[in-house]
Every structure is written in structure tokens, then in C-alpha cells.
Write a structure and sequence with these properties.
single chain; 311 residues; mainly alpha; Amino acid/polyamine transporter I; 69% helix; globular
Length: 311
């Protein structure tokens, strides 16, 4: 019940947030997302504080979490059944993020194309989870759902935790507003992309969770360090390495999209005279915000020495 409540509660928040940002994107036609909206509505001080939080805490932490997941998933098949060395995971993480930085520095078009390819890999990974789970459910494996809606375990102190626990999974609906100025016909495309992507992601996430809990118990899900791998070992044992590689590519896609979007925040902040002028410059041939991209990679790498659980 707690897991179901997390999904429902978080969908309510993300739904309202996404629709609000769709409206903001059509009203304030500037790139920069959170930063530019704070600047336009509350003034320079809140926007400046949000900018520093982004560069020092928020973006490096998110990149570290997703990047370390990428490193772990892609290297563990080579060390199975043992765990991969921590140093190897971190080195591979640094290499993956550096590759993303290089791509973002070379070409906007190539970044967009690679993002599409990585999204396809992400959907393949989700499909390899949903299909076996639905097949198992159709065979009558419903024992893990017997008490799924038991409300006796709900207490007021667990409701905020339910919202918080689902926050990371459903985030991402605001990234389009970071690049508003680069979107063709934003009045039409921002609301259309926001609403359609929110519906698709919600349906896929719900199906993935149903698939997980059809095959695994709640305790097994909580105990697993990589739920997709545990699921694959139960359903498609021969495809487990494939699932791991696809999940790692999915993580790489998340890093690529985040770096592409957030680098525009520092570009815009520099244009608004709240950041050094250097970061409003673009590469003379590639037309990419190279200084802003390089700034982000320097702060991102500083978080990699930490453990995934502590980030």
C-alpha cells in the first residue's frame, strides 16, 4: 500500500508541476527554467541563490547518483556473480560523464540524436521488464498483491516520506523549460510534449512496478541493490546482462539530457549579468555553450569519490 501511495501521490505533484511549467514556458519565453522564473517573478536574489544551489549541490549530486548507477550496471556483468570493484565503477562513471561532456561540447544536433537513440534503449529495457511481468500476471501470480491496498499501515508520518521517495523517479518534466529559446513554436510544442510525455512515463512506470511486484516480494525489492537485475535473474536469466547494459545506457541518457539542459541555465545567468561573462560565450564553430559545459563537468566529478548510498 505504501508503494502504491507513493506512486499516486507523486503523480499528483508532478502532474500539477508539469502543467504549471507548460504554462510558464509559453508565457516567459526565455531559457533557464527555475532560474529565469525566479528572476522574472521574485527578483535577482532568489534566482542567484538557486543558481549557486544548482552548481554546488543539486546538479553534481544528481549526476553522481545516475552516473554511479551507470558505472555499476555496465561493469557488473563482467564480474558476476561477484560485485564489481568500487574503483572500477567510479572510473567508468567518470569516463561516461566525460564522454557526455565531449558530445555536448561538439554538436547540439549530435547531442539530440544520441539522446533519441539512448531513449530507444531505455524503452527497450522497460519493455524487457514489462512483458515478462505481464505474462507472469496473466498466469495468475497475484499473491504479492493480496494486501496491496491495506490502509492499516498508513500513518501521517509516512505520507511525507511517500512523496519524497517518489520525487526522483518522476522528475524531469521541467527540463524542456531550460531550453525554451531553442524550441520551435513553443506555444504549441511545450504543452504538447509535456502532457504526452507525462502520460507515457506514468503508464510505463506503473506497468514496471506491477511487473516488479508480480515477480518479487516487497522485501526482495527493498533488499535488492539493482532491482532490474534481480528481476531479470528471476524471469529472463539469459537476458540479465542485456538488461544491465540497457539500464546503464538509460542512465547515460539521463546524464546527457541533464547536462544539455542545465548548461543553458549558466549561459542564461551569464547573459543576465549574474554569472561571469565567459559563460555566455559559445564555441565559434560548434555553437555550443562550451564554458558552461566545462564548468558543470568540473563540479560533477567532485562528487564521484562518494559512495552511491551517501550521495
Amino acid at each position: 500500500m505504501c508503494r502504491t501511495m507513493k506512486q499516486d501521490d507523486k503523480y499528483v505533484i508532478e502532474d500539477k508541476g508539469a502543467l504549471s511549467y507548460a504554462e510558464l514556458g509559453t508565457s516567459i519565453k526565455k531559457s533557464g527554467g527555475h532560474y529565469i522564473y525566479l528572476l522574472e517573478t521574485l527578483g535577482p536574489l532568489p534566482a542567484f541563490v538557486r543558481l549557486w544551489c544548482e552548481i554546488i549541490v543539486i546538479r553534481p549530486a544528481i549526476t553522481a547518483v545516475v552516473g554511479l548507477s551507470f558505472g555499476r550496471y555496465i561493469i557488473e556483468p563482467f564480474f558476476a556473480p561477484c560485485q564489481a570493484p568500487v574503483l572500477a565503477v567510479k572510473l567508468l562513471t567518470a569516463a561516461g560523464v566525460s564522454l557526455v561532456v565531449y558530445i555536448n561540447s561538439c554538436s547540439v544536433n549530435w547531442t539530440a540524436r544520441i539522446q533519441v537513440i539512448l531513449t530507444i534503449f531505455k524503452l527497450l529495457a522497460i519493455g524487457l521488464i514489462i512483458v515478462p511481468g505481464m505474462m507472469a500476471l496473466s498466469e495468475g501470480r497475484t499473491e504479492n498483491f493480496q494486501n496491496a491496498f491495506d490502509s492499516n499501515t498508513i500513518t501521517l508520518d509516512r505520507i511525507p516520506l511517500a512523496f519524497y521517495s517518489g520525487m526522483f523517479a518522476y522528475s524531469g518534466w521541467f527540463y524542456m523549460n531550460f531550453v525554451t529559446e531553442e524550441i520551435i513554436n513553443p506555444e504549441r510544442n511545450i504543452p504538447l510534449a509535456t502532457i504526452s510525455s507525462l502520460i507515457i512515463v506514468t503508464i510505463l512506470y506503473l506497468l514496471v512496478n506491477v511487473a516488479y511486484y508480480t515477480v518479487l516480494t516487497a522485501d526482495e525489492v527493498l533488499a535488492s541493490g539493482a532491482v532490474a537485475v534481480t528481476f531479470g535473474e528471476r524471469t529472463l536469466e539469459s537476458f540479465t546482462p542485456v538488461i544491465q547494459v540497457l539500464v546503464s545506457l538509460s542512465c547515460l541518457g539521463a546524464i546527457t539530457g541533464g547536462l544539455f539542459a542545465v548548461s543553458r541555465v549558466f549561459f542564461v545567468a551569464s547573459r543576465e549579468n549574474q554569472w561571469p561573462t565567459l559563460f555566455s560565450m559559445i564555441h565559434i564553430r560548434h555553437h555550443t555553450p562550451l564554458p558552461a559545459v566545462l564548468l558543470m563537468v568540473s563540479t560533477d566529478h567532485s562528487y564521484f569519490p562518494a559512495e552511491l548510498a551517501t550521495v
